[in-house]
Amino acid sequence: MNKNFIAGEWLDGARVSRNINPSDTRDLVGEYAQADAAQTRLAISAAEAAFPAWSLSTPQQRFDILDAVGTEILARRAELGDLLAREEGKTLPEAVGEVARAGNIFKFFAGEALRPGGEALPSVRPGVGVEITREALGVVGIITPWNFPIAIPAWKIAPALAYGNCVVFKPADLVPGSAWALAEILSRSGLPQGVFNLVMGRGSEVGAVLLDDPRIAAVTFTGSVATGQKVAAACVARMAKFQLEMGGKNPMIVLDDADLGVAVNCAVQSGFFSTGQRCTASSRLIVTDGIHDRFVAAVIEKMKTLKVDDARKAGTDIGPVVDQSQLGQDQEYLGIAQTEGARLAFGGEAIERNAEGQPGFYLRPALITDTTPEMRINREEVFGPVVSVLRARDYEQALLLANDTPFGLAAGIATTSLKHATHFKRHSQAGMVMVNLPTAGVDYHVPFGGRKGSSYGPREQGRYAAEFYTVVKTVYTQA
Ligand code: NAD
User: Fold this and answer.
1) Which residue minimizes the CA distance to atom 30 of ligand 1?
2) CB-ligand 1 contact for 133 (6 Å cutoff)
3) Using 50, 70 and 90 to split pLDDT, how confident is the model at 116?
4) How many CB atoms are closer than 10 A to CB 380?
5) 340 C-alpha to center of ligand 1: Å?
6) Within 13 A of 188's CA, how many CA atoms are on the CB side?
7) How far apart are CA 216 and CA 198, in angstroms?
8) How does pLDDT run across 75-94, given as a tens digit for each residue?
9) How far is CA 244 from the centre of its chain?
10) Gap between the Cα atoms of 389 and 454, Å rounded
11) pLDDT band at 479 (very low <50, low <70, confident <90, very high)
């Protein structure tokens, strides 16, 4: 039994959750304690008590701890990657890559602890000096989704601690294993008791306490739009700071002049890898007339070669969908698209057992063509290996279609035209723009986030993370 970490102690929970391997549903990854509301409040009390001392800890102390955490994560990337692939279903190379990213994030923010920003300015009044500094917020509530079980927790926990905040962390119910492993590393890192707390449990119970408790100064959330709206409403009601990263319906434009190999690689990579379960996945391919048929044929040829199998088996390209409910949602959207008149050009079959007879949530990646912009498949996030194709007359129409969405996380273009690439970089209404690169797959040291319905509040990651995890103070001194 893997317990919660509260006030420096490992505690049993009110209930137990079973972590199931989506590649083989007979495989129990582990049992995890589920905290209740009272335990969540206990964790908040511990974090509140630890805050005054931790917020005044030295940059060297924070650097040493975060750097050591990063070093251990990197050293254990193969083992932690295996656990991640086993509980979430992305392939082993993808999972090991995610773990490495988490390790690098801790090392990046270890460095940031040594570089707190500040300014000293002369006042407009004689003899007066002005200092502008940044201070920690207090206790930060961290709520994360299931699709990046270690990287997203890392990119929230590391900056929170680096800037002197205390943390109460609630991971997604489906993937407690990677979160628990990260908490276990943090529990041995030298952090004073109560600075970091892990409370695994239900969103409606543990998550709700984090939103409503007045001792939580700020909430950082990544997940669905529906839950994000609840986070926003609860935080506004009590004037708490909050940050939301939510869904996407990311477009990738393919122009007539694109390098076909590059375009197909970008589409397949960001549409289907990680089973399409990435908020930055390209789920709408917007293709101009002159290349449309060649491009669709080449994507289908590539899709035929993709091996859908156990996430941890060598040679697997696409692992399973995360669980039965997500698989059901993916299939439902395939049905909706066809009912609305689109064509299922390839894939979409659920595969109940792999070649070894393991029962899992396998779905052959699906390509849907002959779609129109108003179809639900082009407006709503599916969050699976399901990609639609929209036909466009020219670049100008493709740009209109790309921006015609309530979301604005990532957007891509495949083109050899400097003119169109330059125009798209400026006119795309997305937070992240990729030229001749997949929309999914980003660096760890630069800002991450979107516009419109995808994100709310300051950017995550890189130096920009300081905007959320600190508050500015302006000090006037008469010499
Ligand atoms: P979700 O909204 O169902 O859950 C996210 C987290 O919120 C979980 O920890 C959950 O337990 C918690 N939660 C649920 N109800 C709650 C409540 N009432 N109060 C407080 N917390 C509550 O999302 P998910 O299914 O885990 O993740 C998939 C979604 O995440 C997709 O929409 C995807 O696009 C999005 N996502 C976005 C980004 C990004 O950076 N923009 C990154 C990854 C995933």
Assistant:
1) 223
2) no
3) confident
4) 17
5) 28
6) 11
7) 15
8) 999 999 999 999 999 999 99
9) 11
10) 21
11) confident
What's the 3-state SS for 383-402?
CCCEEEEEEECCHHHHHHHH
Q: What is each CA distance from 187 to 82, 194, 359, in whole angstroms?
A: 21, 10, 36
For residues 163 and 154, give the distance between their C-alpha atoms in angstroms, rounded to a whole number. 14
Cβ atoms < 10 Å from Cβ of 300:
15
Cα–Cα distance between 25 and 354 in angstroms, integer?
12
* 123 CA to centre of ligand 1 in angstroms: 45
Q: Which two tokens stand for residue 209?
A: 């306490």
Q: Which residues are catalytic?
A: 245, 279
CA of 401 to the centre of ligand 1 (A): 27
User: Residue 318 gets which letter from DSSP?
Assistant: B
CB 39 within 8 A of CB 14: yes
452 lines ligand 1 (CB under 6 A): no
> pLDDT per residue over 190-244, tens digit each?
999 999 999 999 999 999 999 999 999 999 999 999 999 999 999 999 999 999 9
User: 196 with 166: CB under 8 angstroms?
Assistant: yes
CB 468 within 8 A of CB 141: no
* Angle between helix 77-88 and 59-75 (nearest 10): 70
Distance, in Å, from the CA atom of 195 to the CA atom of 8, rounded to the nearest integer, reads 8
User: Which of these, 335, 118, 329, lies nearest to 226 by C-alpha position?
Assistant: 329
Identity of the residue numbered 171:
P
